[in-house]
């Protein structure tokens, strides 16, 4: 009787131990899968971050290049405008005329485009 009780208790404990082992193994497997999933997500996020940094850098470089190009065009336009104003002033000064004299009072004086000419024609 005592032996059978001990045998039953031993069988029950062995069964409980096996169930706990199985539960522990399942929990370890779940933890491994969760760890792998977390590592994959981390790797994917790092890749996305690197890609975003690369795109940002490329966009910044493109923007800087475009800005340099536009500044160069602006400088060229300013230089051309200055040259045209100087040419225009020489033409108006040599002919001693202005838009007011040529077209009457309903037109704006052409010399306004050439501010340096104003003292010559509007005394």
Question: Helix and strand layout, with pairings?
Answer:
Blueprint: H1 2-95, H2 99-103, H3 118-121
Task: Give structural notes.
The chain is built from three helices and no strands. The longest helix has 94 residues. The protein has 123 residues and is an all-alpha fold.
Summarize the structure.
The protein is mainly alpha-helical and 123 residues long.
| Global outline | rod-shaped
Helix content: over 70%
Number of helices: 3
Number of strands: 0
Structural class: mainly alpha
Major beta sheet summary: none
Instruction: Evaluate the radius of gyration.
Output: 45 Å
What ranges have pLDDT less than 50 throughout 5 or more consecutive residues?
96-101, 103-123
Oligomerization status of the protein chains? single chain
Give the termini separation.
137 Å
Mean pLDDT: 81
Beta-strand content bin: under 5%
Order of helices and strands: HHH
Which structural traits does this protein have?
single chain, 123 residues, rod-shaped
């Amino acid at each position: 009787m005592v032996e059978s009780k001990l045998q039953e208790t031993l069988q029950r404990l062995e069964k409980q131990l096996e169930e706990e082992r199985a539960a522990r193994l399942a929990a370890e497997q779940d933890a491994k899968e969760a760890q792998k999933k977390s590592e994959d997500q981390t790797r994917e996020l790092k890749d996305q971050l690197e890609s975003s940094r690369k795109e940002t850098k490329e966009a910044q470089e493109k923007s800087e290049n475009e800005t340099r190009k536009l500044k160069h065009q602006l400088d060229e336009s300013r230089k051309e405008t200055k040259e045209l104003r100087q040419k225009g002033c020489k033409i108006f000064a040599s002919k001693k005329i202005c838009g007011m004299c040529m077209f009457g009072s309903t037109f704006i004086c052409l010399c306004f485009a050439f501010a340096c000419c104003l003292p010559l024609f509007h005394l």
